[in-house]
Design a protein that fits this description.
Layout lengths: L1 H16 L4 H4 L17 E3 L5 E3 L7 E7 L4 H17 L5 E7 L4 H11 L24 E5 L5 E5 L7 H11 L5
Parallel strand pairs: 3-4
Antiparallel strand pairs: 1-2, 3-5, 5-6
């Protein structure tokens, strides 16, 4: 009896630890986009009014992040993404595209203000854009090369480190003279 209760508790704990909802657990596939795939066709409006579309990312390294500010792992990863943005955001050779999953703009804006985040974001109240990439788990980071081919994918376990992300970005940025 104790064993059954212990297994039940572990199962419940697993549901709360990952940023995965019940809707996702019924999906047969978690990943849609893999390393080596081209970006799916998408378009989002950023909080600054700029529209970012996959077709316009060619020629730049793209850093796409899916998150929800109520997700514990996302709360750990977003400051790391901010650090990468602070380092490369103004270089003109990269495009940062943080996209919320099922979270309204007002909620994301409050979180950004409370935590001193300055990187742009696109608030999405549904999963339409997210489901072009995956069906479960956040945060998710996709880094593409200048041909819009996904070269790196990071999920929630383990979370990407600043050093890893900087190394990957450096591998993809075109050399300037």
């Amino acid at each position: 009896m104790k064993t059954k209760v212990l297994y039940a508790l572990w199962g419940c704990l697993g549901l709360f630890c990952a940023c995965i909802s019940e809707k996702e657990s019924d999906e047969p596939r978690a990943d849609v986009v893999h390393v080596g795939d081209s970006l799916p066709d998408f378009s989002v409006e950023m909080d600054n009014g700029k529209v970012v579309a996959s077709r316009n990312l060619r020629g730049k390294v793209a850093f796409i992040v899916f998150f929800n500010t109520s997700c514990t792992d996302c709360r750990k990863e977003l400051p790391v993404v901010q650090q990468v943005y602070d380092r490369y955001g103004d270089n003109g050779r990269m495009e940062f595209v943080p996209v919320s999953r099922e979270e309204e703009a007002a909620s994301v804006s409050r979180y950004w203000a409370e935590h001193g985040l300055t990187l742009p974001f696109s608030a999405q109240a549904d999963r339409a854009v997210y489901n072009l990439f995956a069906f479960s788990s956040i945060p998710r980071i996709y880094i593409t090369d200048t041909a819009s081919v996904v070269r790196y994918v990071h999920k929630d376990s383990p979370l990407a480190t600043f050093e890893e992300l900087v190394h990957e970005v450096e591998q993809l940025l075109p050399i300037t003279e």
